[in-house]
Write a structure and sequence with these properties.
The protein is α/β, with parallel strands linked by helices. About 55% of the residues lie in helices and about 10% in strands. The protein has a single domain, classed as 3-Layer(aba) Sandwich (Rossmann fold). It is globular, with a radius of gyration of 18 Å.
Length: about 210
């Protein structure tokens, strides 16, 4: 299994989807699991106890923007709130990811082609220990200005919002240092995709032995 890490807005998800268009891979997404967890009654109950009614909207759903303002950033209050949030949601997210990985690894039916590899796309790969799921960890190296442009266009974030998200994660230098491979996503995305395909071929060769 290949794990993707990088800065916020580095294009990890885009590259994973492009890879899936050309190869029989399965993508497991940490973000999707995180969103799912926030809809579960048991988790919502714990969040209400920990953070109060202010992080819920009028429909009783978690307001991710309000919650984000509490937990993303470097102030002592935000760090403490983030740790509290992680204690609530990370164990459950880990369960979901493990289940999705096991399902992807199971023998497919006759109508489903066998997958060549699993790609785990999770922002907090190193922080949570999900790196242990992976055979190889790939750092997607994308310049800050490109990442800023991407999150501005797709998420409407300011530079301060991007910075606050990155302050809640391991430094980019650490992510790069702990990765087994680096993909340069500073130019043509097809060039970056080709680099990722080379890594996929290497992983497939190792797992087929």
């Amino acid at each position: 299994m290949i794990g993707l890490v990088g800065g916020v807005g580095s294009g990890k998800s885009c590259l994973a989807r492009l890879l899936r268009e050309k190869h029989p891979i399965q993508i497991v997404e940490g973000d999707s699991a995180g969103h799912l967890v926030l809809t579960e009654p048991a988790v919502k109950s714990q969040l209400r106890t920990a953070f109060g009614d202010d992080v819920f909207n009028s429909s009783g759903d978690v307001d991710r923007r309000r919650l984000g303002r509490l937990v993303f950033g470097a102030t002592p209050e935000q760090v403490a709130a983030r740790q509290k949030l992680e204690q609530i949601v990370h164990p459950r997210i880990t369960e979901i990811l493990r289940q999705q990985i096991e399902e992807a690894q199971s023998q497919p039916g006759q109508s489903q082609p066998r997958i060549a590899a699993i790609v785990l796309d999770a922002a907090l790969m190193l922080e949570t220990g999900w790196r242990d799921f992976c055979d190889r960890l790939v750092f997607i190296d994308t310049p800050i200005e490109q990442r800023m442009k991407r999150v501005g266009e797709t998420r409407g974030w300011s530079r301060e919002q991007l910075q606050s998200r990155e302050e809640s994660q391991f430094p980019l230098e650490q992510k790069r240092r702990e990765a087994d491979d680096v993909v340069d996503n500073s130019g043509d995305v097809q060039v970056a995709l080709s680099q990722l395909e080379t890594i996929l071929s290497r992983v497939m060769g190792q797992t087929s032995r």
